[in-house]
Structures are given as C-alpha cells and as structure tokens.
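Aim 2 progress update. The chain analyzed this quarter is reproduced below.
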Amino acid sequence: MRIGRLVDGRCVIDTGDGFWRSAAEGVTVESVVAGGHAETVGKPVDDPVFTAPYRPGTIIGVGLNFLDTVAQMGWEQPSAPYLFPKLSSSVIGDGDAIVLDDSLTARLDWEVELAVVIGRTTKNVSASEALKHVFGYTGANDVSARDVQAEDGQWLRGKGMDTYCPLGPVVVNADVIPDPQAVRLQTWVNGQQWQNGTTADMVFTVAELVAYCSAHFTLEPGDVILTGTPAGCGDFAVPRRGLRQGDVVETQVAGIGRLRNPVRAI
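Predicted structure tokens:
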C-alpha cells in the first residue's frame, strides 16, 4: 500500500493495484499510519501531484550511520547511534523550495535518507521485535548547514531550519519494503549524480535504531526516524560543493519515489 497527500489537500491511496484513489471522508495519512482503515472512493486520480505526506510530531535524525560516509569524513565509527532532532517546521514536500539564507549559512548540503515511519506506541522494544512497530517508510533529504553544525558543536540549528526536511513523495507500508537493509539511495544535483548507496552499508540497522530510540524516548504513531546517508555529500567533496540559488536537488529512495526540490535564495 502507498499513501500520499495531494497539493489540493486530498489524501490518496494505492492499495496495491497501481492506481491512486481518493481516501474516504475523514481518512488521512496520519490516521492510516496509526492503524485506521485505508478506505478509498471513486475512480483513479489522473496525474496526482503530491506534497509532503504529513508533518510528523517528532523527527529523529541519525548521524554517521553509513560506513562509507564515516570513511569519507575521516571520523571514527560511532559505538552507539548519534541522534539529533529535526524540527517539524522543517518539513516540505516534493516540488517545494529549499530556502538558502546566505546570512545564516554558506555551506548548505544534501543527504538522501530512508525515513522510518512508526506505526504504534513504542517503548523499550528489542531489535528483534522492532520492525513490528514500523508502519512503513518514506524518503527524506536531511538538508544540512555544515558551517552552522561546526559552529554550534551540536546539530539543532544546522539541521532544523525551515525547509531543511523534504519528505515523501509518499509513504509506503512495510510490505512494499520487506527488507529495509536492501534499499538504494540516490541524489542528483542539476542532473549530476552525487550519491548512490544502499542501506546495506548502515552501521546500525533500522531495527537497531528503532530499539535504541525506544530505550530513550517513547515513539508514537507517525513519528519519523531518519536513518543516515551514504557517501557523496557535497561538503565532503574535493573541491567542496554547496547548494546554490537555482540548483535542483533530486533524492530518490527505491520503492518510494523521488523528491525534486529547487533551491531558492533569500
């Protein structure tokens, strides 16, 4: 099953036949994620145009979670997941602009990520049971102001500013991605590919991340965990490449779809 939200606000659902149909009255992406019925009505929707599926109440980011990224950065492999918050106000959808404010950052970067969507209240779950608490997955771009990260020493500002979390284009349930450790992640900027990795390269698996987070916080339906990014970010390239006015960033998570976001300077 796939679930999305159109730019006109309608929730649409593909229950497995490949066609998007409007959800029944009262059905939302959030209600389906929380265990509600995925009822649809009417004929298939022609040429659906999606926006962000919903605005999660909690977004937890995970840093340094791909072996090739750790190697590219020259850092030590973490012994435990490195967690940081992404703010709900940072969420945008497919087609929305990533805003570059050069009074705040000169080193804006991209990070394609598999995003885990929690399906039920989760606390102190074991890694062996963790995936039973996952509704499904969506795609994310963990946009990052690298100079702000370095200046602060922690990542709230550098990761949490408005428009720094493109999410979507849709949410898929766990049946669509039965093995979250076998998902390809890719990024293009202006048509040039920068990232092309797989979740098989994760330091900590999706199940381990859900278990670790649940040991420290109660996870609620709709909460999202961003699971890290493979090598190929612009800030670690030689020479360094940051996002600029007029760039178009495309991030793709296999089985979910592609986010396309222009960069707009203010």
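The CA atoms of residues 5 and 53 lie 5 Å apart. The chain has two domains: 2-50, 59-265. These observations will guide the mutagenesis experiments scheduled for the next reporting period.
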